[in-house]
Structures are given as C-alpha cells and as structure tokens.
Inverse folding.
C-alpha cells in the first residue's frame, strides 16, 4: 500500500480523503512512468460527496455573482499561468502531444474566465401580464446538485466546460473524471480548493464508472447529470434519468463526415483531413472518420493524403518532433487493431495502421487509411476512436450529402469546396450539430454551443451562454401590484 502522502485523494466536503483502493496513472508514452497514484472511491464516498454538496447548496446558490466570478476567474488565471506545467502533466497521462496538451490547458483557463464573466451576466425578464395590476418576472435559478462525468480524451478541457458553468450559475458539483486520466481533474480540484471554494460546493470522487459513475447517476440526491462518453453508457444514463425525472445532458460520439468536392483546393482539403482524422491520435469525438471524396479529385487526394499521413511522426508525447502521440492504453490499442483487421476482412485496402515499436514501451500505432470501402461497411458505421479514417468515393454533391447523413451520429460535419453554393447548401442540409467549411471537423471555440444530433447528443448544448439552458431552471413569478 502506498503511503497516504503519496496518494492523490478524493475531495469531499472540503477535505482530501483516501479511497477504497488506489490506481496508478500510467504514461501511455512510457508505461514505466507512473504519473501518480490516485484514490479510487467507493459507494460510501459517493454518498458523502452528494450529502456535502446538498448541505452546501443553500448558501452557495444564494451567494452573490461576484463571489462566483472571483473564484472562477482565479482558477482560470492560474491555469493560464501554469499552462506549460499542467500541459506536461496532461501529455504524460493522456498521450496528447505537448503542444496539443498545452493548448488544451489554455482552453480550460479560457473557459473558466469566460464563465466568471457569465456569472455576472445572468439575466431575466420583466413582462406585463394580460391581467391589469399584475407584474410578471422570469428568472433563472440553479438546478441544484449536478453530477459531472467526464471522459479521458480531453482530461482538462471537458471537466472545465462542465464545472465552470455549473458553479457560475450557483450549482454544487460532484465530479467523476475518467479513471484513466484523473490527474488534470485533480489539478482543477486543487485550484478550486486553494482559491477558497466553500466546502462541499465542489467535490471530486475518482474511480471506475461501473461503481462511482453508476452510483452518482442513480443517487436520489442528484438533480442533474452531465455526461460525455460512449453511446452505450449514455443510453443507460438517459434511461435512468428518465425514470428519476431529472435533467440530463449527453455527449456521446460521432462518425463525422468530411466531404471533399472536385472543386476543392487540394492542399486545403488534405490538411483539413490530416488534422481532423489523425491529430490527437484520432481520439476526438469530432474526428473526421469518413472522408467522402468526389470521383474527380479522389485519386489525387488519396495519393497526397496517404503520403502525408505516412510521414507523420508518431512518438513520445513529450518529444519535440512528435506529431502524434500514443493511443491512450492497451485496451484502446487492441480495439483499433481489431478495426484495422476488420477493414481488411471487408475488402478495404489498408494504408498504415501497424503497431509501432519505439525506444520506450508504449501504445504506439501508425495512422490508418481505409481505401475502396463503402458507407455500409462496419468500419464506416462504428466509431473507432483512433487514428483511422475511411475514404468513400462518390459521384456528385447529392450523393456526398446523402452519404454524409447516412449515419446514426450527427455531431460534426465538414466540406472542402470553393463553391459558395455547395458550402451553403451543405451547411443547411447536413444533419449535424456543428458544420465546418474548409476547416477540420475537430476544433471549436469555447464561447459558442457544442453538441450534435441523433445518437451524438441529447439535451441542451454545452459551452457559451447556451450552457445556462442546462445548469439553470426557469421560474415565472406573478405579483399583484
């Protein structure tokens, strides 16, 4: 058993507490490197965290917006000031290259500072009643105690864009980060604690989803659940929240199309697809996993993209020359390799995709391109969540749009074209929550809504001022003059 001083504990009711078990946080670039040891909570800890949040809610929800602004602004400022240090931690625990990890840390700081401002901008309405002598006001109030369940692929940005609005609008929080990447969430907990977050307002419970996550979702003391993760888990959460009649917000993945038209600028299209499909090791729900290419540009596009993809340097996330880091863990690597073999069995030509050996033991894989495939193949239907993309040849714009929409998902979609008509019509008709024209499907701003349609998302949008739709409830009050 590790000495308690070496274990990163759970934060419950303002105190750092041990868990029922301890989990090592392993660096996927070098499995000999243990980032840290993190306490794993059990059912008792979940009960204690929810009770602490419920006890803290009356005072926090009644606190003025300046208090909430100051806390969030202080956390955001420190995240930005320590971006290199925290980015290095992120790169070690998740495998994202250091520039991407630092960029994600900056995004988290920006999110906290944005919602610090939003805490001061929450507005309502005053309206005249249709009945004389009666005033009507419409205001927003906090939901209550919110359970936040976050994934491993953006271990600081996604916790930030859930925690910050929850606190800005006066809610209390119980956060369960991904078991694979607890380190960055623990840093946010440390900063909130350091900058005076009242005991119980924010609680951190780490551990496996099947224990901690399930307990939170079904806990009667929880008023709302925000989850980002797999579609299967999201469906279970939606069913539970429906039975309990509580608010739920789900972000669950995608099989995002990037259409490349004959009239596209070839280099613009290649760079958008290279970034969207393979950067961040393809471990983004917004990744371009279906490249839908018109026949006239198909061969030239495949030739250039294939060469540039194979030239990408896969290596240790902390190495300066690495462009793609490792896959997050052995399980994800095995899943990726399964889909690569499945592509061959479905008669696709596979470029790349092999497991790679480096001078350190890690989960390295070459990016993979699947050629000669169709939209009905499993590799084009199921989310792989790795550096793999299918290329699907189409005749014209209408077929491209039909193929783009022929999916269970609807998160992000893109088109590369120099035609204003094609760009405009695609934006209007594609069935996705976010649309990119001549840009990668991955990469969004922090002040605008994030979310999709169909099996990708359920409930109100995340980020920007639109986050108020989930983290607040409306109250309409009538008063006789």
């Amino acid at each position: 058993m590790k000495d308690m001083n070496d274990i990163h504990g759970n934060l419950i009711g303002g105190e750092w507490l041990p868990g029922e078990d301890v989990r090592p946080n392993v660096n996927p670039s070098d499995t000999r490197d243990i980032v840290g040891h993190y306490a794993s909570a059990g059912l008792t800890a979940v009960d204690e965290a929810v009770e602490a949040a419920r006890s803290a809610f009356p005072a926090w929800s009644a606190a003025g917006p300046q208090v909430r602004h100051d806390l969030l602004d202080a956390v955001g400022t420190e995240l930005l000031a320590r971006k290199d240090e925290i980015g290095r931690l992120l790169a070690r625990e998740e495998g994202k290259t250091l520039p991407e990890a630092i960029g994600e840390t900056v995004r988290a700081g920006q999110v906290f500072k944005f919602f610090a401002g939003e805490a001061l901008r929450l507005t309502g309405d005053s309206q005249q009643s249709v009945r004389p002598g009666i005033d009507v006001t419409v205001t927003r109030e906090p939901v209550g105690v919110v359970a936040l369940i976050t994934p491993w692929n953006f271990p600081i940005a996604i916790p930030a864009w859930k925690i910050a609005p929850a606190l800005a609008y006066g809610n209390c929080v119980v956060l369960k980060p991904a078991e694979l990447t607890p380190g960055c969430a623990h840093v946010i907990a440390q900063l909130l604690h350091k900058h005076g977050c009242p005991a119980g307002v924010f609680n951190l419970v780490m551990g496996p989803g099947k224990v901690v996550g399930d307990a939170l979702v079904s806990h009667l003391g929880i008023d709302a659940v925000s989850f980002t993760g797999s579609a299967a888990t999201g469906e279970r959460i939606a069913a539970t929240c429906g039975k309990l009649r509580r608010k739920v917000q789900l972000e669950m993945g995608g099989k995002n199309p990037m259409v490349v038209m004959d009239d596209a600028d070839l280099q613009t299209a290649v760079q958008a697809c290279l970034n969207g499909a393979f950067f961040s090791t393809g471990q983004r729900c917004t990744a371009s996993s279906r490249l839908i290419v018109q026949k006239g540009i198909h061969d030239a596009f495949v030739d250039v993209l294939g060469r540039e993809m194979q030239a990408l340097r896969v290596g240790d996330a902390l190495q300066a020359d690495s462009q793609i880091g490792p896959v997050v863990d052995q399980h994800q690597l095995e899943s990726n390799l399964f889909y690569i073999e499945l592509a061959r069995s479905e008669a696709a030509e596979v470029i790349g995709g092999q497991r790679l050996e480096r001078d350190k033991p890690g989960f390295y894989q070459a990016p993979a391109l699947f050629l000669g495939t169709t939209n009905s193949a499993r590799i084009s239907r199921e989310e792989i969540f790795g550096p793999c993309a299918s290329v699907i040849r189409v005749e014209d714009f209408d077929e491209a749009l039909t193929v783009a929409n022929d999916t269970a998902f609807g998160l992000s979609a893109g088109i590369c074209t120099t035609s204003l008509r094609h760009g405009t019509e695609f934006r209007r008709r594609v069935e996705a929550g976010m649309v990119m024209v001549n840009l990668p499907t991955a990469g969004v701003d922090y002040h605008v809504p994030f979310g999709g349609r169909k099996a990708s998302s359920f409930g109100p949008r995340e980020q920007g001022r639109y986050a108020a739709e989930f983290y607040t409830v409306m109250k309409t009050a009538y008063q006789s003059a």
